[in-house]
Amino acid sequence: MAEQVLIQFRVDKDLKQDVADICDALGTDIPTVFRMCMKQIIITRGIPFSTRLPEKAVTREEALDAFEEMRRQAADVPEMSLEEINGEIRSARADRRDIDRYG
Question: Which family is it part of (predicted)?
Answer without folding.
Answer: Belongs to the RelB/DinJ antitoxin family.
